[in-house]
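testing teh design pipeline on a random one, pls ignore if ur not involved
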């Protein structure tokens, strides 16, 4: 089966509710996207709002407060809003990296695998049936001399020592107390929470969910999105091959990749569409394939999107490809197109209006940088 990149991008835009916004509830959108990165709360709100028929900021926070979603460290070690079903699929595959057993991790963060195991048990016991701020959790842990040497790292906002616990389902974020983060357990936060499955049991749901939004894709692309390729390659390839006839291999202009078999005919029938979309910072449309995907984002302009300190810029997407970035300047959206291209005139105002509604701002006009 042969398809073009134009077909792939048109299909992804629709599957991710960008070209075809939905009236579905927020958890449906988050589930389709395999989680929404929430390192920057406003960016996460925009990602969800832009995919709804009536863009409105704040819907993600409401879903989190209702307990239909929860926040935890997940893919690539970053904070995500997840449904319980997505968590059960992806967290075990993050835990499968066993990254805390690697010498480089132990050297950087000063904890052995045995100490991480002890920390997991202690945190699970401390947080049982309660939520604590970071300071309260650290204070409780430091009552045990065994954790004294971890004190400074435990206090860090980066949470490196706590991420392996999140991947094993022992810890997640609770309701914030003002601007203070709290931690609890998924079992306390989510009604009917079940223990996480083993990686091989979780993999089919994880792979098919990813391909349902970001396919066709390769095993390497999947694990790049999931763990920055920290899982063993034979294991990842096995997760794909074990799905057998549930997946179909396609040829995208010479690139071999996989899509769910149920979507193959749909993709083949796609007619590429001309379109313009403004997407916010850290949008899943680029995080899913990754900024190294040169079909989506020209290599010469990767640094324009993936900036210092891990910042992912807001995007101008033209016909499915990333063609520029934008930023807000008062009531203006300032557009910087790649290679000196002119901003596309058609559909530009409609795209700007949608992103303005998603951000809850008034836009006077779109201007070129």
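output:
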């Amino acid at each position: 089966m042969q398809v073009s990149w134009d077909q792939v991008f048109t299909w992804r835009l629709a599957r991710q509710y960008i070209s075809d916004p939905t009236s579905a509830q927020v958890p449906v959108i988050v589930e389709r996207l395999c989680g929404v990165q929430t390192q920057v709360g406003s960016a996460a709100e925009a990602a969800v709002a832009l995919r709804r028929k009536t863009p409105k900021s704040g819907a993600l926070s409401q879903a989190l407060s209702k307990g239909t979603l929860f926040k935890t460290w997940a893919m690539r070690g970053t904070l995500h809003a997840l449904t319980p079903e997505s968590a059960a699929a992806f967290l075990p595959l993050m835990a499968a990296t066993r990254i805390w057993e690697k010498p480089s991790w132990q050297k950087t963060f000063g904890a052995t695998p045995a100490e991480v195991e002890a920390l997991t048990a202690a945190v699970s016991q401390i947080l049982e049936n309660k939520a604590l701020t970071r300071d309260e959790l650290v204070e409780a842990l430091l009552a045990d001399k065994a954790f004294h040497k971890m004190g400074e790292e435990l206090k860090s906002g980066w949470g490196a020592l706590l991420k392996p616990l999140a991947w094993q389902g022992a810890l997640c974020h609770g309701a914030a107390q003002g601007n203070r983060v709290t931690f609890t357990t998924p079992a306390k936060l989510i009604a009917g929470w079940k223990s996480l499955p083993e990686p091989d049991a979780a993999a089919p749901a994880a792979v098919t969910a990813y391909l349902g939004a970001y396919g066709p894709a390769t095993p390497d692309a999947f694990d790049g999105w999931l763990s920055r390729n920290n899982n063993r390659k034979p294991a990842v390839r096995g997760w794909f091959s074990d799905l057998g006839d549930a997946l179909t291999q396609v040829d995208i202009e010479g690139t071999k990749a996989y899509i769910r078999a149920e979507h193959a005919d749909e993709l083949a029938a796609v007619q590429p569409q001309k379109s313009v979309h403004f997407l916010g910072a850290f949008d899943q449309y680029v995080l899913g394939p990754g900024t190294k995907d040169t079909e989506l984002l020209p290599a010469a302009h990767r640094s324009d999107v993936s900036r210092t300190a891990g910042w992912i810029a807001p995007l101008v997407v033209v016909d499915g490809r990333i063609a520029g970035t934008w930023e807000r300047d008062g009531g203006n959206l300032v557009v910087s197109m790649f290679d000196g291209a002119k901003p596309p005139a058609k559909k530009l105002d409609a795209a700007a209006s949608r992103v303005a509604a998603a951000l809850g701002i008034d836009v006077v006009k779109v201007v070129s940088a």
